[in-house]
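Quick note —
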Amino acid sequence: MIRRFLLAVVLVAPGFENALDAGALDAATFAEWVDGSERPTTSKRGPAHIVSTPGSAIEWQGLRYGDSKNPGPRHLRVGFKGPVAIGSVLTKGGGRLSVLKPDAAYPGDLQKDDQWVAAERLGRDEAADDEFRLWTLPPGTSTRALRFTHDAKPADPAYAGYLGGVYALTERFANIPRRFPSRAPGTSTPPS
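Predicted structure written out below.
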């Protein structure tokens, strides 16, 4: 509850301008890739289902993508009608984030990693379904598409990726968590 409140405060603070408007979203390229082929997503609202734009409301349940009976990578693409300057992306879940390189043909081949630039982040490789993650892009990034990737492991209870929401920011921000040593000097327990 506190995290959601803090997130709401941050998103309305000055400087956290949304990089996207509803007209920028390209519903025709909103697709997922799994088991070696690309297909349209199951969302009836297109990218507006999970991408926040001024005055919009994303779906509370998020979106599962790349559902299959096979483990391995699956991708979800959110395309834009033109280049968009993006510095950071805040997500709930989503796996890993990359953006289409400026010289790659639009809308980008989801299975070709060399067409995508990986975003930077702190923490584990993939964002868990219930985890908020701030992704930072290289300075001066302008892109036509975002790609979310989930690499399903054979032991996973479900193989689909999950993206709860996307908020693209024009500015570059860093997510710097408070770091404590695992044990305070001279004590046997970690600091509280």
